[in-house]
Protein backbone atom coordinates (compact mmCIF):
# COMPACT_ATOMS: atom_id res chain seq x y z
CA UNK A 1 0.00 0.00 0.00
CA UNK A 2 1.17 3.52 -0.80
CA UNK A 3 2.78 4.91 2.36
CA UNK A 4 1.69 8.42 1.27
CA UNK A 5 -1.99 7.52 1.57
CA UNK A 6 -3.62 10.26 3.62
CA UNK A 7 -5.72 8.61 6.33
CA UNK A 8 -8.11 11.17 7.79
CA UNK A 9 -11.23 10.77 9.90
CA UNK A 10 -13.72 13.47 10.88
CA UNK A 11 -16.23 12.74 13.63
CA UNK A 12 -19.13 15.01 12.67
CA UNK A 13 -21.52 14.03 15.46
CA UNK A 14 -22.09 11.49 18.21
CA UNK A 15 -25.16 10.68 20.32
CA UNK A 16 -25.69 8.06 23.05
CA UNK A 17 -28.94 6.28 22.18
CA UNK A 18 -28.77 3.53 24.80
CA UNK A 19 -26.86 3.62 28.10
CA UNK A 20 -27.36 0.24 29.77
CA UNK A 21 -24.85 -2.57 30.33
CA UNK A 22 -24.40 -2.46 26.57
CA UNK A 23 -23.98 1.11 25.36
CA UNK A 24 -24.97 2.17 21.87
CA UNK A 25 -23.83 5.35 20.11
CA UNK A 26 -25.07 6.78 16.82
CA UNK A 27 -22.26 8.59 15.03
CA UNK A 28 -21.89 10.70 11.91
CA UNK A 29 -18.42 10.27 10.43
CA UNK A 30 -16.35 11.00 7.32
CA UNK A 31 -13.12 9.32 6.27
CA UNK A 32 -10.58 9.55 3.47
CA UNK A 33 -11.10 7.17 0.58
CA UNK A 34 -8.42 5.23 -1.29
CA UNK A 35 -8.84 7.51 -4.34
CA UNK A 36 -7.83 10.53 -2.22
CA UNK A 37 -11.29 12.03 -1.78
CA UNK A 38 -13.31 12.27 1.42
CA UNK A 39 -16.40 10.15 1.92
CA UNK A 40 -19.81 11.70 2.45
CA UNK A 41 -20.99 11.83 6.10
CA UNK A 42 -21.86 8.28 7.09
CA UNK A 43 -24.38 7.43 9.81
CA UNK A 44 -23.32 4.40 11.85
CA UNK A 45 -24.36 2.74 15.11
CA UNK A 46 -21.52 1.48 17.31
CA UNK A 47 -21.70 -0.76 20.38
CA UNK A 48 -19.42 0.70 23.04
CA UNK A 49 -17.74 -1.99 25.14
CA UNK A 50 -14.78 -1.91 27.50
CA UNK A 51 -11.75 -3.96 26.46
CA UNK A 52 -11.80 -7.59 27.55
CA UNK A 53 -9.29 -10.33 28.30
CA UNK A 54 -9.48 -14.10 27.88
CA UNK A 55 -7.29 -16.99 28.96
CA UNK A 56 -6.77 -20.53 27.71
CA UNK A 57 -6.12 -22.44 30.95
CA UNK A 58 -3.57 -25.21 30.29
CA UNK A 59 -2.14 -27.86 32.60
CA UNK A 60 1.25 -28.83 31.09
CA UNK A 61 1.79 -31.58 33.65
CA UNK A 62 -1.38 -33.47 32.65
CA UNK A 63 -1.66 -31.99 29.14
CA UNK A 64 -5.24 -30.85 29.66
CA UNK A 65 -7.25 -27.75 28.74
CA UNK A 66 -9.91 -26.26 31.01
CA UNK A 67 -13.11 -25.08 29.36
CA UNK A 68 -16.28 -23.49 30.69
CA UNK A 69 -19.91 -23.77 29.61
CA UNK A 70 -22.66 -21.22 30.16
CA UNK A 71 -25.96 -19.98 28.74
CA UNK A 72 -25.80 -17.20 26.15
CA UNK A 73 -29.01 -15.46 25.03
CA UNK A 74 -27.63 -13.89 21.82
CA UNK A 75 -26.91 -17.19 19.99
CA UNK A 76 -30.27 -18.47 21.21
CA UNK A 77 -32.04 -15.64 19.38
CA UNK A 78 -30.51 -16.73 16.06
CA UNK A 79 -31.09 -20.44 16.70
CA UNK A 80 -27.49 -21.08 17.67
CA UNK A 81 -26.26 -23.08 20.66
CA UNK A 82 -27.90 -21.67 23.79
CA UNK A 83 -25.16 -23.13 26.02
CA UNK A 84 -21.72 -22.37 24.66
CA UNK A 85 -18.31 -23.92 25.27
CA UNK A 86 -15.96 -21.05 25.97
CA UNK A 87 -12.73 -19.92 27.59
CA UNK A 88 -12.46 -17.94 30.80
CA UNK A 89 -12.92 -14.27 29.91
CA UNK A 90 -14.22 -10.97 31.21
CA UNK A 91 -14.25 -7.22 30.80
CA UNK A 92 -11.20 -5.34 32.05
CA UNK A 93 -12.05 -3.18 35.05
CA UNK A 94 -10.81 0.45 35.15
CA UNK A 95 -7.20 0.55 36.34
CA UNK A 96 -6.77 -3.19 35.78
CA UNK A 97 -4.32 -4.83 33.38
CA UNK A 98 -5.39 -7.66 31.04
CA UNK A 99 -3.18 -10.02 33.07
CA UNK A 100 -4.94 -9.05 36.29
CA UNK A 101 -8.31 -9.54 34.62
CA UNK A 102 -7.67 -13.11 33.51
CA UNK A 103 -6.30 -14.06 36.93
CA UNK A 104 -9.43 -12.64 38.58
CA UNK A 105 -11.80 -14.24 36.09
CA UNK A 106 -10.09 -17.64 36.26
CA UNK A 107 -10.70 -17.78 39.99
CA UNK A 108 -14.28 -16.52 39.64
CA UNK A 109 -15.36 -18.63 36.66
CA UNK A 110 -13.42 -21.85 37.22
CA UNK A 111 -11.83 -21.76 40.68
CA UNK A 112 -8.38 -21.67 39.07
CA UNK A 113 -5.19 -19.99 40.22
CA UNK A 114 -3.04 -19.11 37.21
CA UNK A 115 0.73 -19.45 37.32
CA UNK A 116 2.72 -18.39 34.27
CA UNK A 117 1.04 -16.46 31.46
CA UNK A 118 1.94 -16.45 27.76
CA UNK A 119 0.42 -13.65 25.66
CA UNK A 120 -1.31 -14.92 22.53
CA UNK A 121 -2.44 -11.64 20.99
CA UNK A 122 -5.34 -9.21 20.77
CA UNK A 123 -8.21 -8.74 18.34
CA UNK A 124 -11.43 -6.78 17.88
CA UNK A 125 -14.35 -9.13 18.51
CA UNK A 126 -16.65 -7.53 15.90
CA UNK A 127 -14.88 -4.59 14.29
CA UNK A 128 -17.80 -3.68 12.05
CA UNK A 129 -20.02 -2.68 14.95
CA UNK A 130 -18.28 -2.94 18.34
CA UNK A 131 -15.35 -1.25 20.11
CA UNK A 132 -14.48 -4.32 22.23
CA UNK A 133 -10.86 -5.47 21.92
CA UNK A 134 -9.94 -8.83 23.47
CA UNK A 135 -6.43 -9.64 24.73
CA UNK A 136 -5.78 -13.38 24.93
CA UNK A 137 -3.37 -15.43 27.02
CA UNK A 138 -2.48 -19.01 27.74
CA UNK A 139 -2.34 -19.59 31.49
CA UNK A 140 -0.65 -22.35 33.45
CA UNK A 141 -3.04 -24.11 35.86
CA UNK A 142 -3.62 -27.29 37.85
CA UNK A 143 -6.48 -29.11 36.09
CA UNK A 144 -7.26 -31.29 39.11
CA UNK A 145 -9.05 -28.25 40.57
CA UNK A 146 -11.07 -27.55 37.43
CA UNK A 147 -14.31 -29.42 37.92
CA UNK A 148 -17.48 -27.88 39.29
CA UNK A 149 -19.95 -25.03 39.18
CA UNK A 150 -18.79 -21.42 39.44
CA UNK A 151 -19.72 -17.83 38.62
CA UNK A 152 -20.45 -14.53 40.35
CA UNK A 153 -23.76 -14.79 42.20
CA UNK A 154 -24.32 -11.04 42.05
CA UNK A 155 -24.23 -11.32 38.23
CA UNK A 156 -26.45 -14.44 38.14
CA UNK A 157 -23.68 -16.41 36.46
CA UNK A 158 -24.13 -20.16 36.15
CA UNK A 159 -20.86 -21.63 34.86
CA UNK A 160 -19.69 -25.22 34.58
CA UNK A 161 -15.94 -25.80 34.40
CA UNK A 162 -14.33 -29.03 33.21
CA UNK A 163 -11.11 -30.27 31.64
CA UNK A 164 -10.41 -32.09 28.36
CA UNK A 165 -7.27 -33.65 26.86
CA UNK A 166 -5.28 -31.04 24.95
CA UNK A 167 -5.30 -33.16 21.78
CA UNK A 168 -9.10 -33.21 21.82
CA UNK A 169 -9.18 -29.43 22.12
CA UNK A 170 -6.77 -29.14 19.17
CA UNK A 171 -8.94 -31.48 17.08
CA UNK A 172 -11.99 -29.34 17.78
CA UNK A 173 -10.13 -26.16 16.86
CA UNK A 174 -8.87 -27.60 13.57
CA UNK A 175 -12.19 -29.21 12.65
CA UNK A 176 -14.18 -26.00 13.08
CA UNK A 177 -16.19 -27.19 16.08
CA UNK A 178 -15.23 -24.18 18.20
CA UNK A 179 -17.89 -21.58 17.43
CA UNK A 180 -16.80 -18.47 19.34
CA UNK A 181 -13.93 -16.15 18.56
CA UNK A 182 -11.81 -16.40 21.70
CA UNK A 183 -11.90 -20.20 21.80
CA UNK A 184 -11.14 -20.45 18.09
CA UNK A 185 -8.30 -17.90 18.09
CA UNK A 186 -6.66 -19.44 21.15
CA UNK A 187 -7.31 -22.97 19.91
CA UNK A 188 -5.62 -22.34 16.57
CA UNK A 189 -2.69 -20.66 18.34
CA UNK A 190 -2.35 -23.65 20.66
CA UNK A 191 -2.53 -26.06 17.71
CA UNK A 192 0.15 -24.10 15.84
CA UNK A 193 2.44 -24.10 18.87
CA UNK A 194 2.11 -27.87 19.20
CA UNK A 195 2.71 -28.36 15.47
CA UNK A 196 5.93 -26.33 15.78
CA UNK A 197 7.04 -28.49 18.67
CA UNK A 198 6.76 -25.64 21.15
CA UNK A 199 5.89 -27.06 24.56
CA UNK A 200 4.61 -23.66 25.79
CA UNK A 201 5.72 -24.82 29.24
CA UNK A 202 7.33 -27.99 30.43
CA UNK A 203 6.15 -29.76 33.55
Cα(first) to Cα(last) distance is 45 Å
Oligomer: single chain
Major beta sheet summary: 8 strands, mixed
Unreliable sequence segments? none
Strand content: 35-45%
Number of helices: 4
Count of β-strands = 11
Summarize the structure.
By secondary structure, the chain is α+β, with helices and mostly antiparallel strands. 21% of the residues lie in helices and 38% in strands.
Itemize the secondary structure elements and their pairings.
Blueprint: E1 9-19, E2 23-31, E3 42-48, E4 52-59, E5 64-71, H1 73-77, E6 83-86, E7 88-91, H2 98-110, E8 117-124, E9 133-140, E10 148-150, E11 159-165, H3 166-174, H4 181-195
Parallel strand pairs: 4-9
Antiparallel strand pairs: 1-2, 2-3, 4-5, 4-7, 5-6, 5-11, 8-9, 10-11
Helix pairs in contact: 3-4
Can you walk through the features of this model?
With 203 residues, the chain is an alpha+beta fold. Helices cover 21% and strands 38% of the residues. It is built from 4 helices and 11 strands; from the N terminus they run βββββαββαββββαα. A hairpin with a 3-residue loop joins β1 (9-19) and β2 (23-31). α3 (166-174) packs across α4. The relative contact order is 0.17.
What tags apply to this protein structure?
203 residues, alpha+beta, eight-stranded mixed beta sheet, three-stranded antiparallel beta sheet, 21% helix
